[in-house]
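Async update (no meeting this week)

Hi team, since we skipped the sync, here's where things stand on the single-chain job. The sequence we agreed to prioritize is pasted below, unchanged from the tracker. I ran it this morning and attached the output directly underneath so nobody has to dig for it. Comments welcome in thread, and please keep replies under the output.
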Amino acid sequence: MHLVLIDTRSAEGAREVKRSYKFQIHPTTRQARSLAACIEDHRQLYNAALEERREAYRMRRVSISYGGQSAQLKEIRDTDSAGQGRWSFSSQQATLRRLDTSFAGFFRRVKAHQTPGYPRFKGRGWFDTVQWPKDRDGCRWDSQPHQPAARVYLRGIGHVKVNQHRPVRGMVKTISVKREGRRWYVILCCDGVPAVPLPPTGRGIGIDMGVTHFLTTSAGELVANSRYLAGSAAKLARAQRALARCQRGSQRRRAVVQRVAAIHRKVRNQRTDQAHKVALDLVRTADVIAREDLAIGN
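Output:
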């Protein structure tokens, strides 16, 4: 048996850390349409870049790099000024860089004799995030204490209201917008966040993840498995039966799809909330946490 030791006070010597903040945003009807168009155009850019790489290798055995595709952006934006030209140049570069990262992972897995996982085309619903890699470059985080509500500015979309439920610390480096069903979120990645080390407790603890119980500690404490999916099973079954009766492409089917997605999103949020609360309680009460080196997902 292999053990993994986690030092919960490892940040004690660090003065600054990196941190991400996720807030729900409330776009107007016009802004929501613009956000959807922005994601769709970035999805098409991703797929077109992937197609170019595939065809170049298939026809000429030539590999195209990120630099070569990024150099074509100016011509693409000039040609399609009403489409791709509406959005931030840096966000489009981030989309091309995202594809380049996928290819780097593919080649790394090939060399390691693992399942390669060749990058795939992104269909509708499989590309829901756009990133602006630098604040004030096509985007701007605008949050002041005297303002009634925080806002984020995105080129081609405007100033969007943000439900900022906690203060943002550090310097905002990258801004991402993510679509989850009918909801929109902004994700801020910050550098230079002041580290707040916890006081030492002089205590170590071992944990074991399980199925019957969510968690068992070496002190004999049991954390129940709340089984949130079982609690929503009846509602989910009704929604899935309704989905099976809907005609493909109909307005009603799109509404029922959103209902099914909302149920799954609620279960996911409940699980994440429990995991965060249990982890926070463990970190606050122990200096060292030991767990077995197992693939917990199995």
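Quick observations from my side:
The first helix runs from residue 29 to 60.
The radius of gyration is 23 Å.
Reply here if anything looks off.
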